[in-house]
Amino acid sequence: MENLHNPDHNKRTMLTGMFSDRDSTERAYEILSERGYTKDEINLIMSDDTRKKHYSDKDDHSELGNKAAETAGTGSAIGGTIGAIVGVIAALGTSLVIPGLGLIIAGPLAAGLAGAGAGGITGGLIGALVGSGIPEERAKVYESGIKDGRVVLGVHTRNDEDAEYFEREWKSNRGENIYR
């Protein structure tokens, strides 16, 4: 089936990686952001439990929360919010909470799922991941990681140079199961 929104969508590489803590997740997101990728291009998937536990900006007095607040003035935090990821999730319209699955999905994948309506997510998380171009075996690895509290980031890179750069940076940043 052809993607009508973006004709070259299927030709571009989808780079995905999984991160096990807030620090590495936010750093991986910043790496994408520094190269000009926007929240509308970056897919982010986590469980609602993980979001509540680690990405809620309520009373965030952790060292990372303070660090994020400090860097907000330097422009590296998205939109000046506490932590880039919290900002992405807080940006209404770009994130989708899937009640039956207990998932938070942000980015173009969220838009695609929202457009597909409830019927589009009957396949669950694996169906959503496979629908976004991730092979089924990899989707199964990510699904169990998300259930264990990890966060999956994915982006259709603009070129091979970006893909190689992100892959290298993510690996040096404790990223797991990085594929393209």
From TrEMBL:
The lineage of its organism: Bacteria, Pseudomonadati, Bacteroidota, Flavobacteriia, Flavobacteriales. This is General stress protein. The keyword Transmembrane applies. The chain crosses the membrane at residues 77-98, 104-130. The keyword Membrane applies. InterPro entries: Low_temp-induced_all0457. Keywords: Membrane, Transmembrane, Transmembrane helix.
